[in-house]
Amino acid sequence: MRKPLWIGVFLAVLLLEAPAYAGPQEDCAQERDLDRRVRACTTRLHKFPSDATAYFNRSSAYLSLGEADRAIADATKVTQIDPGWASAYFNRGLGYAQKEQHDRAITDFTKAIEINPRDGAAYEARARSHIKTGQADAALRDAERAVALSPVGSDALVTRAQINEALGRRAEAIADYRRVLADKPALPAAIEGLRRLGASPASALAQPR
Fold first, then answer.
1. Mean pLDDT computed over every residue of the chain
2. What are 150-162's pLDDT values in tens digits?
3. Residues in CB range of 168: below 8 A, 6 or more apart
4. Minimal CA–CA distance to 42: which of 24, 26, 60, 30?
5. What does pTM read for this prediction?
6. How many CB atoms sit inside 10 A of residue 206's CB?
7. How confident is the model at residue 208 (pLDDT cuts 50, 70, 90)?
8. Distance from the CA of 122 to the CA of which of 49, 64, 139, 148 falls in 20 to 30 A?
9. Of the listed ranges 23-27, 38-42, 129-133, the one predicted with least confidence
10. Do residues 92 and 72 make contact, with C-beta atoms less than 8 angstroms apart?
11. pLDDT(24) > 90
């Protein structure tokens, strides 16, 4: 027996209007709605309590929401399930950094780097924690490594500029800020950095990339 035509049309409309992600697993991975992501990951973990990916995704959402303690707890679960997951240590380090516990953050960023020595973001994050703990030389070394591993115009270059500025290395800081603006002409951190140093942001456009 054939279905009435209206049923086929109705089903087609439902498919067209269905969201791009529609289940706990998909929602747990999406990035558009962090609260929805947390709820979906929590639902999935009730069913699959050893799902390291769900813990990691929820940890990342908690970091973006500024809920450092929950981010740390979830990242710790990931390291217990999969001790070789570099990004889990990175996430936990970011959580500790949010709480201004920079010694613990440095330990986790170091572990992430040991597992993945080409993770520029981990070097950059460790550089920021080093400068917070007064380890200027270590901070600059990490910033240099982060810049070498990261694309032009990345956050790593801003971090190195800020560290050079903090160390009184004015010429180096200006050069870095101008390199950033050559790629991202409206980036506030670079514009403000040049103004603090008494340099004109306008000349950044003439700098070689």
1. 87
2. 866 578 999 999 9
3. none
4. 24
5. 0.81
6. 8
7. very low
8. 49
9. 23-27
10. yes
11. no
139 CB neighbour count, 10 Å cutoff: 24
CB atoms within 10 A of CB 189: 16
Q: Could you tell me the pLDDT band of residue 2, with boundaries at 50, 70 and 90?
A: low
Q: Which tokens go with 140?
A: 């600059």
Separation of alpha carbons 131 and 169, rounded Å: 14
Q: Kind and range of the H or E element at 184?
A: none
Distance between CA atoms of residues 71 and 50, nearest Å: 16
- Buried (b) or exposed (e) across 106-135, using 16+ Cβ within 10 A? bbbbebbbebbeebbbbbbbbbbbbbeeeb
The residue-averaged pLDDT of 87-97 equals: 98
Alpha carbons 160 and 9: distance in angstroms, whole number: 58
- CA-CA distance, 48 to 204, in Å (whole number)? 52
CA distances in angstroms from 122 to 34, 76, 178, listed in the order given: 23, 17, 24
